[in-house]
């Protein structure tokens, strides 16, 4: 099975298990800034996700379900050809993890301080072949890093 160029993984470190069935959305926010000193270039504008998925039993998303309402121009700008996302476009991306619902459905420790977690990251030019975004999660904290 092939994987999309951006994947993610959620581990619930409060129970030492993968966080299964968490809804996640991925967004293309903007192209890369030409001037890293321009603070306005880092303002995250409101945008809609171009794909969504739920984590599997291992807490992973390997492939995303593309928004069927994307037009051909939008697909091309993100690197989606047909229904396959094989090419990665440099720019600023965001993954939104709906953690509140996940914790609400647990039998114990079902309250959380974070109803959702948003991780914003940069895909460089030229992009690496693959970007992996792990999220280590408890109901009162989280951490993330660039995985492999």
UniProtKB/TrEMBL annotation:
<comment type="subunit">
    <text>Homotetramer.</text>
</comment>
<dbReference type="GO" id="GO:0033971">
    <property type="term" value="F:hydroxyisourate hydrolase activity"/>
</dbReference>
<comment type="similarity">
    <text>Belongs to the transthyretin family. 5-hydroxyisourate hydrolase subfamily.</text>
</comment>
<dbReference type="InterPro" id="IPR036817">
    <property type="entry name" value="Transthyretin/HIU_hydrolase_sf"/>
</dbReference>
<dbReference type="InterPro" id="IPR014306">
    <property type="entry name" value="Hydroxyisourate_hydrolase"/>
</dbReference>
<keyword id="KW-0378">Hydrolase</keyword>
<dbReference type="Pfam" id="PF00576">
    <property type="entry name" value="Transthyretin"/>
</dbReference>
<keyword id="KW-0659">Purine metabolism</keyword>
<dbReference type="GO" id="GO:0006144">
    <property type="term" value="P:purine nucleobase metabolic process"/>
</dbReference>
<feature type="domain" description="Transthyretin/hydroxyisourate hydrolase">
    <location>
        <begin position="6"/>
        <end position="147"/>
    </location>
</feature>
<comment type="function">
    <text>Catalyzes the hydrolysis of 5-hydroxyisourate (HIU) to 2-oxo-4-hydroxy-4-carboxy-5-ureidoimidazoline (OHCU).</text>
</comment>
<dbReference type="InterPro" id="IPR023416">
    <property type="entry name" value="Transthyretin/HIU_hydrolase_d"/>
</dbReference>
<protein>
    <recommendedName>
        <fullName>5-hydroxyisourate hydrolase</fullName>
        <ecNumber>3.5.2.17</ecNumber>
    </recommendedName>
</protein>
